[in-house]
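User: I need a structural model of 5-deoxy-glucuronate isomerase from Rhizobium soli for a docking pre-check later this week. Nothing fancy, just the predicted structure tokens so I can convert them on my end. Input:
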Amino acid sequence: MYDASDPRASLAAGKPLSSPAGPAFPASYARFYDQEAQDTDGAGKTWIVRGQNFVLLHTQAEGELLLERRGQPDEYVLLMPDEATTAVVEAGGENRTIDGHSLTFLPPGDSSVRLSGGGHVVRLFTSAAGDLLEQASNAALYATANPAIPPLASWPAPVDGYRIRSYSLAVQPEPGRFGRIFRGSTFMVNYLEPKDGPRDPSLLSPHEHSDFEQCSVALSGEYIHHLRWPWTTDKAQWRDDNHETCASPSVAVIPPQVIHTSQAIGAGINQLVDIFCPPRADFSAKPGWVLNAEDYPIPARP
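Assistant: Understood. Predicted structure tokens for 5-deoxy-glucuronate isomerase:
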């Protein structure tokens, strides 16, 4: 359900659900400002949270910090939202300096990210990174998989092969385009336009996704995540509505088949980032929405 002013109102309507795929799966919230980090280094702290198909690492760097990954089986994401943060990235035989306020896709294999300038850094890995899944603060939630989510299938490799691909987030909004969307072979990231002050409560956007999770990362400001689970014939499976207030930095992992909308309530700048693993087909089908679409092909239709 979208207001007519919301670009998502132009999306094709999804297939209505006849019934949920199984017992109601809970949402998951991680408030990094209010819980212990899973990994502490002298120059930074890292919090780890997961979804069914992905794992997210949020690092608060205080100075120079080396982040390494060995034998990564697939492409992963480096998000550096702060302009003051820079990184020297080595991967796939390349060595590149990456500016802040950017989104970078790193190739499979060994890689290193040497951060300077401090700031917040987010890395995104698929569930193929089993060692990281085990460290997630909400790992126990996924001891049983959500049957509504299909097995992870990566999208095609980039047109000229895997390499370091970095994109500036300094992209001006355009009428009819929703946020700032980038996709790789494993993830789609929408760096939404910031909200200056609270969101108009008469223009919320309650909607649901039939078969994929949404990971919403609050980088600044404060949000209420409103969630409502559908009823089934078995009342024992019903869940109460969630109206979860999360300051920043924080993460909400929203299951499929749950009506949801996020309401910015902070007095200053509220910045939210939506993450999907694998990429979304409906967003990819909208001309001009995916800013790096020429680099990453969409899957062939069966």
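Before docking, keep this in mind: The first strand starts at residue 28 and ends at 31.
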